């Protein structure tokens, strides 16, 4: 079963009405949406948390990111003017809870994440995953490739995350995309990093990355060339391929996202990130993640709010696609 042949929900169950129940009341689901078990066990777009951060190389704490994003998402409203869409009315979006990954065994955790993602995709959902550290992009990509074949990847991040190993470990938050290329689960004609910046281990890092097929739009490119030109370039590269978007919140400048594990100066503003993401509406987005929110380093939920709005835009793109595939 695919997302488009999942039984259409006559009228999706939407979020709790914040004019009737104060938005700070009750347990937090993403955007105050129902849980998947409250809407019959499946959703067109499943928002799922992965509280896992055993793959980090510096500050820990992204295991708490998903719930911080859920808390910050209480203020989201049901109509998205930037995309002229009411995403939670167009498709059933629901919170699928958390994937219980083993914090003491990375290999097992990677398998657990993939198995849970496989189940959700097999039930007809597109995934909006809330990390967790960036290690989890690998099992998520394995899962989407199992369903769609090799996918285009748009990777927003300060870092390349195509390094080889850390301390001999293959599965870390700095290595998921090299593993994915090695495994043949990415469409190497359509791989882009956006927001790249900061010191590297050596020039070879860039050579290796280019050999894997990645194009780079640096953080400075976004500033110099502007959001519209960059978005056009990305859309051309992606075409109508099945697309996975992975957003490491450290793509944002530390002023816009202090709550993350490996911050780098000189990043995107949250406005730039949101505008680029909105500009990707209409692409064949099969699933997405927002990762690396580490709330212990956050202030006034700056990072979690930015992450919640980013996930909202991605969710809107997917909900619009679900609706469009039904009328097609
Ligand atoms: N994926 C993130 N956030 N960071 C990767 C940094 C790897 C390093 O410490 O070199
Ligand atoms: Zn990063
Ligand atoms: Zn990353």
TrEMBL record:
Keyword Electron transport in record: no
EC number: 3.5.3.11
GO molecular function list: agmatinase activity; metal ion binding
Gene3D superfamilies in the cross-refs: Ureohydrolase domain
Residue positions binding Mn(2+): 134, 157, 159, 161, 248, 250
Root EC class: hydrolase
Gene that produces this protein: speB
Top-rank taxon, per record: Bacteria
PROSITE patterns found in the cross-reference section: ARGINASE_1 (PS01053), ARGINASE_2 (PS51409)
Assigned keywords, A-Z: Hydrolase, Manganese, Metal-binding
Protein name per UniProt: Agmatinase
A GO BP entry: putrescine biosynthetic process from arginine, via agmatine
Membership in a protein family: Belongs to the arginase family. Agmatinase subfamily.
One matching Pfam family: Arginase
Co-factor remark: Binds 2 manganese ions per subunit.
Cofactor list: Mn(2+)
Cross-referenced InterPro entries: Agmatinase-rel, Ureohydrolase, Ureohydrolase_dom_sf, Ureohydrolase_Mn_BS
Organism: Streptomyces botrytidirepellens
Segments of this protein annotated with the region Disordered: 1-21
């Amino acid at each position: 079963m695919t997302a488009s042949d999942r039984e259409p929900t006559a009228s999706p169950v939407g979020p709790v009405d914040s004019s009737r129940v104060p938005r700070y009341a009750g347990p937090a689901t993403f955007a105050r949406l129902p849980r998947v078990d409250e809407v019959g066990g499946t959703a067109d777009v499943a928002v799922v948390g992965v509280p896992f951060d055993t793959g980090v190389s510096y500050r820990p704490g992204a295991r708490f990111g998903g719930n911080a994003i859920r808390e910050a998402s209480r203020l989201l409203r049901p109509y998205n003017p930037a995309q002229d869409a009411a995403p939670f009315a167009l498709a059933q979006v629901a919170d699928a809870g958390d994937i219980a990954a083993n914090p003491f065994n990375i290999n097992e955790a990677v398998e657990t994440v993939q198995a849970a993602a496989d189940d959700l995709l097999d039930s007809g959902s597109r995934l909006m995953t809330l990390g967790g550290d960036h290690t989890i992009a690998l099992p998520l990509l394995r899962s989407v490739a199992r369903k769609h074949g090799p996918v285009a990847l748009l990777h927003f991040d300060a870092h390349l995350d195509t390094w080889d190993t850390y301390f001999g470990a293959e599965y870390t938050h700095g290595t998921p995309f090299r593993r994915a290329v090695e495994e043949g689960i990415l469409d190497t004609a359509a791989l882009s990093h956006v927001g790249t910046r900061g010191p590297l281990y050596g020039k070879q890092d860039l050579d290796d990355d280019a050999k894997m097929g990645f194009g780079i739009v640096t953080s400075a490119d976004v500033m110099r060339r502007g959001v519209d030109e960059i978005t056009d370039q990305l859309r051309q590269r992606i075409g109508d391929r099945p697309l996975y978007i992975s957003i490491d919140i450290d793509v944002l400048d530390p002023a816009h996202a202090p709550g993350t594990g490996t911050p780098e100066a000189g990043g995107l503003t949250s406005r730039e990130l949101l505008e680029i993401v909105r500009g990707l509406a209409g692409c064949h987005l099969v699933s997405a993640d927002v990762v690396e929110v580490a709330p212990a380093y956050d202030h006034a939920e700056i990072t979690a709010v930015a992450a919640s709005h980013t996930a909202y835009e991605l969710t809107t793109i997917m909900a619009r696609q679900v609706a469009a595939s039904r009328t097609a």
